[in-house]
Amino acid sequence: MKEITAEQLAEKIKSGEKVNVVDVREDEEVAQGKIPGAKHIPLGEVPNRLDELDKDKHYYMVCRSGGRSGNATQFLSEKGYDVTNMAGGMLDWKNEVEK
Questions:
Q1: Could you tell me the CATH number of the domain that includes residue 75?
Q2: 25 found inside a domain
Q3: Residue 98 maps to a domain
Q4: Is position 63 annotated as part of the catalytic site?
Q5: Structural domain tally of the chain?
Q6: Alpha-carbon separation of residue 41 from 6, 13, 19, 69, 77 (angstroms)
């Protein structure tokens, strides 16, 4: 499974790189703040919302600590998606968030 640190992902965003971030946390967690521009798809809804993800794009998967996003990354990889897990999750995110 491909992984990236929160710091590396923040650098990509700061440098202006177009990134697609999917936050798989639950609603109440996301309400506390998410990476700006991140798409919110709770982990349990991922299998039913595959039509919202483009197989031609690369996605960075995010959760609170990296476990659930790791599960989502593995699931999506098996379905043919290009995905990378953000290790450490939002607990390691030191940059701005949107609410």
A1: 3.40.250.10
A2: yes
A3: no
A4: yes
A5: 1
A6: 19, 20, 16, 11, 16
The reply to whether 62 falls in a domain is yes
> pTM for the full model?
0.97
> Among 24, 18, 21, 25, which Cα is nearest to 35's?
21
Per-residue pLDDT of the chain (99 residues; tens, 9 = 90+): 999 999 999 999 999 999 999 999 999 999 999 999 999 999 999 999 999 999 999 999 999 999 999 999 999 999 999 999 999 999 999 999 999
Position of tokens 């995905």? 83
What is the C-alpha end-to-end distance of the chain, expressed in Å?
A: 29
Task: Determine which one of 38, 46, 53, 63 is catalytic.
Answer: 63
